[in-house]
Amino acid sequence: MSRLLPTNWIKRLGLDLAPFRPRLLDDLKGYTRGRFMTDLGAGLTVGIVALPLAMAFAIASGVKPEAGLFTAIIAGFLISALGGSSVQIGGPAGAFIVIVYGIVEHYGVANLLISTVLAGMLLFVLGLFRLGVLVRYIPVSIVIGFTNGIAVLIALSQFKDLLGLSPQHMPADFVGQLRTIGAHAHQFNPFALGLGVLTVFSLWAWPRVFSPGRLPKVMLEARSFRLASRMPGPMVVLLVLTVVAALLQLPVATIGSRFGGIPQALPQLAWPDFSWEGVRNLFIPTITIALLGAIESLLCARVADNLTDLRRHNPNQELMAQGVANMVAPFFGGIPATGTIARTVTNVRAGATSPVAGMVHALALLLIVLVAAPLAVHVPLPVLSGILLFVAWNMGEWREFIKLRHFNYTYRTILIGTFLLTVIFDLTVAVEVGLVLACVFFIYRMSTLFRIESLAMVDPQIAVFKLYGVLFFGAVGKVEDLAEQVPAEARVVVLEAHRLISIDTSGLEALLQLRRALARKDIPLVLCEVNEQPLGLIHRAHHDETLGPANVVTDLPSALLRARQLLPAAGHSMGSQQ
Questions:
Q1: pLDDT for residue 4
Q2: Comparing C-alpha atoms, which of 494, 544, 542 is closest to residue 514?
Q3: Cβ 410 vs Cβ 441: under 8 Å
Q4: Which of 379, 51, 376 lies closest to 246, judged by CA?
Q5: How far apart are CA 234 and CA 88, in angstroms?
Q6: Does residue 469 lie within any of the structural domains?
Q7: Could you tell me if 152 and 13 lie in one domain?
Q8: Mean pLDDT, the chain, whole residue set
Q9: Does any domain span residue 288?
Q10: What's the rounded Cα separation, in Å, for the pair 229 and 220?
Q11: 569 pLDDT exceeds 70?
Q12: CB-based contact 439:464 (threshold 8 Å)
């Protein structure tokens, strides 16, 4: 029976799968009441911060506000409970707004849910096969490029509600949104713009009011001011401006006027419409959600690692948790979820010590929905737009554009190219083209590092060349041209490969072609000081006999001795041809 066990089959296939072990299991060892109280406070704080963001992200994504709340509750709980980070907070993210809106626009909400489930499966597989580390290999220029591009698109998507416009249809693409905003500019509502601008200004000013030196010391030390300084800015602004808009009866769109409110109940399990025909059409959206989810979650976890002294996150476990969350949340009306930097940083600064804080944040949101959902009908949409504009501004790394002049042409091209492609086309195209450009530039750079130098020798009949760097497919041209650079009086060529770090099959084939080209001139080829990797490839490819076992020696003196032994044979052969 033991032969039938899955683990044995896995071992037979040589698969090294990641164990499914949530960080929560380790963090609960030695867990104390003091730590729980700290995590409880951090979780309640993050829950309050997450409330307006979850609704705003959902509305901006083209779905109902409760979809964002249910995602924050269900996916947020699962990501914390099953993840590989002690402090990461999961839920709907600003980075997904453009992607989700485009999928809803082209495929509908039902297909969005199916894409999210499929992306969750893909994320789980990536983590299971230990591929979480691959995300770290995406160049920082690509990450900055598409992050700034998404921030621009998020900001643009909010101008509809910020200006009080009410077009029947809002396109998903950048140019289409600009045209629609321009076509409906006559609907401009100054009250909506005033609320939005006041929201952005208040969010900017809130933390600065309580900074040292802004207010008298006596006021800052007062209990009421200390309590106010701990209140999350987004929640305070949302509550105050909602009350102001309601009391003044400002003519602006609200959650109630557009969506009818938020259900005061637990999310209901529902099976999305499923068809294999639809699945085939959702390949690109699924890849996009999975790719962005993996990048965002692992980048967020790395940021959290740098802010705390807790154990570093496990990327594979984190991806598996993200996968489970995205497989489950859509069945309750949720949208794609990932790690969120703003809420994670808030969690860290609130003193979180374990995933319990993230689980508390989800339960706090659930309690708010069950108790205060009817009040959401009064929330003005321009206020939510202002919150998202502030999020978009903080999300972008705008100073990187200013610092571009300090970087090389390759870095600038990839960053600006990825940024423009994200804005004009979409994230998938931007990342694909960015990776291709990065690979092309990397290949070119590596090819320039490979070089061949000629050594001056006493015997003009022996030409010695030194190889430097990595001989791979991008640098083989330099070896192929070497046969034409051999001096006319040379009768033997020696290649000293002590500084040849590595070689691929294309590089080996280039050496064999060089040997054949020299052989046509009756010039033997001798290799010396070949490192372990190139020598191992020669052995595995069974080219020892091709090169001649006696022509691959350990050091340069031995190579010169071998070359002198070959001189009479080489000269005799040339003489016989004449």
A1: 41
A2: 494
A3: yes
A4: 379
A5: 20
A6: yes
A7: yes
A8: 87
A9: yes
A10: 9
A11: no
A12: no
Whole-angstrom Cα distance, residue 255 to residue 246? 12
Q: In terms of residue numbers, what domain contains 126?
A: 2-17+37-162+185-255+277-395
Q: What is the pTM of this model?
A: 0.79
C-alpha distances in Å from residue 356, one per residue of 76, 84, 272, 388, 568: 11, 13, 31, 27, 81
Q: Are strands 451-455 and 462-471 parallel, antiparallel or unpaired?
A: antiparallel
pLDDT of residue 168: 80
Find, among 34, 104, 23, 21, the residue nearest to 62 by Cα. Answer: 104
Which residues make Cβ contacts (< 8 Å) with residue 200, sequence separation at least 6? Answer: 386, 389, 390
Report d(CA 511, CA 527) in Å as an integer: 10
Domain end among 365, 395, 425 = 395
334 vs 58: CA distance, rounded Å: 9
- CA dist 226 → 121, 203, 212, 219, 254 (Å): 45, 18, 12, 9, 32
- Cα-based angle 239, 242, 248 (whole degrees, multiple of 5): 140
Q: How far apart are the first and last CA of the chain?
A: 76
- CA 568: distance to chain centroid? 62
3-state SS, one letter per residue, for 151-177 = HHHHHHHCHHHHCCCCCCCCCCCHHHH
Query: What is the average pLDDT across 486-499?
Result: 93
Confidence of residue 167 (pLDDT cuts 50, 70, 90): confident
Tokens of 175: 């140019």
Per the structure, how many domains does the chain have? 2
Quick one: tokens of 243?
Answer: 């009350």
Half-sphere exposure of 108 (CA within 13 A, CB side): 9
Dihedral angle at the C-alpha atoms of 171, 176, 178, 180, nearest 10 degrees?
Answer: -60
Which three-class secondary structure state does DSSP give residue 552? strand
Distance CA 65, CA 72 (A): 11
Asked if 412 contacts 401 with a C-beta cutoff of 8 angstroms, the reply is no
Q: Judge contact between 482 and 452, C-beta under 8 A.
A: yes
Task: Identify the pLDDT of residue 131.
Answer: 86
* Coil, helix or strand at residue 181: helix
Q: 15-70, pLDDT tens digit by residue?
A: 678 899 999 999 999 899 999 999 999 999 899 889 898 999 999 899 999 999 99
Query: CA-CA distances (angstroms) from residue 197 to 54, 250, 374?
Result: 20, 15, 26
3-class SS of residue 63: coil
